[in-house]
Every structure is written in structure tokens, then in C-alpha cells.
Design a protein that fits this description.
Number of strands: 7
Protein name: Endoglucanase
Order of helices and strands: HHEHHEHEHHHHHEEHHEEHHHHH
Shape: globular
Enzyme class: hydrolase
Distance between the termini: 18 Å
Family: Belongs to the glycosyl hydrolase 9 (cellulase E) family.
Largest sheet: 3 strands, antiparallel
GO molecular function: cellulase activity
Number of helices: 17
Structural class: mainly alpha
Helix content: 40-55%
Strand order of the largest sheet: 1-2-3
Keywords: Carbohydrate metabolism, Cellulose degradation, Glycosidase, Hydrolase, Polysaccharide degradation, Signal
Strand content: 5-15%
Length: about 475
């Protein structure tokens, strides 16, 4: 099975051009996709910082609990560090990219005290009521932690997964750091497993409704154990996976406008909240022809056919222009995450000489081949979103405006029809609606806000196509 079959599995998601003659520059898109993360950095910025309109911020984070929590990433257009999606972002970068130390260094700080894991830094409700640059933050930088009496298995296990995945990346280049990462991953996973409970009950409004865990924490525990098995080859983690998959919920719940919806079989879900499809694909990659992997491979096949457009078992819809849609906001998070996962599984199928045929039509939707003729990556192409929902991007930089912006001093920049002051190069926004329509407005949060967990999976996809363009044209 060659590259053509790999292509067929991911065509429909809008990442490979098969219509028209113009080529997409995957190298440029990849460089910008990675550059985006510099715009999301919190902490003391290095001399190598290329997105120069961003400056140091959050330099006292963690001081309220006598911890050093300086660093890491702001999740989206706000100034809060949500460690649950940040850990997922780091795991995705580790699965496809070796430039992830900014994330792992921070996660090591967040897990530095045994029996305690920092879940969130910054009061989300107060932060979201202010339109401030991260350099000016004067809202409370409260550190929300989970511990033995107030557990948070999903955020802890997700961090363990990220650290274990990153340890594999650093193994050849920095063994000491790699060993440190895997040792911490083992410690944090043990804490997550021994003291089970959801962080949404422990940290309350700091988690919900921002990054509530709607489908339980068992998928994160199994996901973490899978990465630990890959990192250590210790059979006890494989036994943990096979023993505890029975606790994974068959249906995935998504809350939309305050109402709970059972949207699809969990085997077709993958993102910062649901890890089910990722577990199945990762196990397939690790064990290949091992008989113990058969149930996971079958579920991974089910995942493929749950999203391909011609499949009779698909659980998604498509816009007229060919973009995959799932219910909820910020649809591009599904497009990029599922694209990455399908690429990983397609590679497994090629090496295992297996195939899943469920469809083969699409366009380079994200990067501009769509009915709007718009790239949904900021700074890529001639037409891209100009008014993204992002505080630092919309407000004048410190270089241009030395005085501090107070909580509401920047409000006029929310409502202006002018483009954002600073271009957040590489940011993937939430994207168009189910009819391919996009409203370029900061208040249109679902469509116009970027997020790290939308960019992170796309890095691996673009890297693959950068090296493999010759196969597709």
C-alpha cells in the first residue's frame, strides 16, 4: 500500500488539493503554523522570539501558592493558562514535532510538588471580562490546583501523557531531560490513578464552562497509560489499558448552549476532551500485528468510517464546500485533530499492508481552496481573517503603546471594524459555518478565535505534506 492510499484517508478533511492547478506551499504553512505558538507564549520570552510584538508576561504566576509557574501557553485569545488543553497541545506537538520544550518545561513546574497538580493559572471569569494585553494583566492570577483530597484525574493524566510522549522525542538528543520527563510522567500518572475524580468538581468555575470534561476522566487515564507503555515498554501499563478500556463511555456527550447532547460513538472522537479514537490509533501503531491490538484496530477502523463522507456509518456532516462539521463551537479543532489522527492511522495501514476505503474527494479547504477563497490560517495567502478574537493581536503592542491598558481600556479595540493591530501569524481560527460562511468579527468568537489545540495537530499534517508534496500533484 503506497502513498496514494494514505492520501485517500485524509483527502476529505480539506488538506490536500485535488481540484485546480495551483499548489499549496506546505512549507510556508508549516513554518507559520509553528510560529503561532510564539504568539501564545507566557513568561520571560527568549532572545530568539520572532513574534516581536509580544513581550514578557505572567512573570509572577504561581506566587500565590509559592510555586514558580512562569511560562507555558495561553490557550486562545484570552490570558489564562488552562493546563488541560495545554497538556493535549503538548502531547500533539510531541507526537509530531520536536520543538515543544516551552510546553514541557512549564508542565514540569506545574507538577513539581508530589500529590499536587496545577490545573489552571488565572481567574478565567475575571480575565474574560477584561480586554487586556497579557503584558498588562491586572486581574487575579489565581493558581487552581488538584490534590489528594480534591482530585483531577483528567488534567493530571493528560499531563502525564504529554510528558511521556515528549520523553520519546528527547530520548536521542537529551537523554537526561528525557529521563526526567518520563520519571515525572510516572509520578503524575500514579497520582491521577490513585486519587480519582474530575477536576471540574475540584476547581469548579475555573474549569467550567471553559474546559469542562464532559465524558469523564477514564479516557485520559487510559490515554496516559498508553503513552507510558510506549515510553517505557513496561507491561503493567499495557495491562492497565486492556483492563480499563471497559470504563470508556460508548457515547460522547457534548454540551451545546447549556444542553447535553449525545453526539456520537466515542470511538469517533478525538480532541482536548475526548481521547478514545487517539487511544485506538496509538495502540494500533504500537502493537501492530499483536493479537492484543485487534479490538483497538477494529475501533480505529470504525473511527475512519465515522468521519469519511461516503461511509454509511459517518457521524459528521459536511459543508457544501467539503468541510467536516461536528456540533459545537470552534469547528476547526475537529478538522485539524481528526486530520492528524487519520494521517497517523494511514501510516499504520500502509506499513501493515491494510486498507480502509471510505471516500476520496476534497480540496485544500483550510488554506484557501474553499467557497470564500479565504485562508483560515492568519497570515497565509492573500485573504485571511483580519479581526480575530485575540486580545494581544487586537491591541497595540507595548512598543507602540507604552502605557498600560486597564481592564476595560481596550474595549474600543473589540468593536472597531479596523483590522487587528498585530498579525498573529499562523493562527488557525474557528472557521466558517456549515454553509461555508465566515463573518470576520471579533465578537463572532466561535468562528474568529484561534487556539493552541487547533494548531498543534496541524503541525504534523503539514510536516508530512511538506515532505511528500511530489506524491499529490
Amino acid at each position: 500500500m503506497g502513498h496514494k492510499c494514505v492520501t485517500l484517508l485524509i483527502l476529505f478533511l480539506g488538506l490536500i488539493g485535488v481540484r485546480g492547478t495551483s499548489k499549496v506551499d506546505y512549507g510556508e504553512a508549516l513554518s507559520k503554523c509553528i510560529l503561532f505558538f510564539e504568539g501564545q507564549r507566557s513568561g520571560k520570552l527568549p532572545s530568539t522570539q520572532r513574534m516581536s510584538w509580544r513581550k514578557d508576561s505572567g512573570l509572577k504566576d504561581g506566587s500565590d501558592i509559592s510555586m514558580n509557574l512562569v511560562g507555558g501557553y495561553y490557550d486562545a485569545g484570552d490570558n489564562v493558562k488552562f493546563n488541560f488543553p495545554m497538556a493535549f497541545t503538548t502531547a500533539m506537538l510531541a507526537w509530531s514535532l520536536d520543538a515543544l520544550r516551552w510546553g514541557t518545561d512549564y508542565l514540569l513546574k506545574a507538577t513539581n510538588i508530589p500529590g499536587t497538580v496545577v490545573a489552571v493559572v488565572g481567574d478565567p471569569n475575571r480575565d474574560h471580562s477584561c480586554w487586556e494585553r497579557p503584558e498588562d494583566m491586572d486581574t487575579l492570577r489565581t493558581s487552581y490546583v488538584v490534590n489528594r483530597t480534591h482530585p483531577g484525574s483528567e488534567v493530571s493524566a493528560e499531563i502525564a501523557a504529554a510528558l511521556a510522549a515528549a520523553s520519546i522525542v528527547f530520548r536521542e538528543t537529551d537523554k537526561t531531560y528525557s529521563d526526567h520527563l518520563v520519571a515525572r510522567a510516572l509520578q503524575v500518572f500514579a497520582f491521577a490513578d490513585r486519587h480519582q475524580g474530575s477536576y471540574k468538581a475540584s476547581v469548579g468555575e475555573a474549569a467550567c464552562p471553559f474546559y469542562c470534561d464532559y465524558n469523564g476522566y477514564w479516557d485520559e487515564l487510559v490515554w496516559g497509560a498508553t503513552w507510558l507503555y510506549k515510553a517505557t515498554e513496561d507491561s503493567k501499563y499495557w495491562n492497565y489499558v486492556t483492563t480499563n478500556t471497559k470504563f470508556l463511555k460508548p457515547l460522547y456527550s457534548r454540551h451545546i448552549n447549556g444542553m447535553e447532547h449525545k453526539t456520537a460513538f466515542s470511538s469517533g472522537e478525538f480532541g482536548w476532551d475526548a481521547k478514545d479514537a487517539g487511544i485506538n490509533v496509538l495502540v494500533a501503531k504500537i502493537l501492530k500485528r499483536n493479537p492484543g491490538a485487534e479490538q483497538f484496530i477494529q475501533k480505529a477502523d470504525d473511527f475512519v468510517c465515522s468521519v469519511l463522507p461516503e461511509s454509511p456509518t459517518k457521524s459528521v456532516t459536511y459543508s457544501p464546500g467539503g468541510l467536516l462539521f461536528k456540533s459545537g463551537s470552534s469547528n476547526m479543532q475537529h478538522v485539524t485533530s481528526l486530520s492528524f489522527l487519520l494521517l497517523v492511522y494511514a501510516s499504520f495501514l500502509r506499513h501493515a499492508n491494510r486498507a480502509v476505503y471510505c471516500g476520496n474527494v476534497a480540496v485544500d479547504y483550510i488554506l484557501g481552496k474553499n467557497p470564500q477563497g479565504m485562508s483560515y490560517m492568519v497570515g497565509y495567502g492573500n485573504k485571511f481573517p483580519q479581526r480575530i478574537h485575540h486580545r494581544a493581536s487586537s491591541l497595540p503592542s507595548v512598543d507602540d503603546h507604552r502605557d498600560q491598558f486597564g481592564c476595560h481600556d481596550g474595549n474600543s479595540f473589540i468593536f472597531t471594524k479596523n483590522p487587528n493591530k498585530n498579525v498573529l501569524i499562523g493562527a488557525i481560527v474557528g472557521g466558517p459555518d456549515e454553509n461555508d460562511k465566515y463573518i470576520d468579527n471579533r465578537l463572532n468568537v466561535s468562528q474568529s478565535e484561534p487556539a493552541t489545540y487547533m494548531n498543534a495537530p496541524l503541525v504534523g499534517v503539514l510536516a508530512f505534506f511538506k515532505e511528500s508534496t511530489k506524491y499529490y500533484y
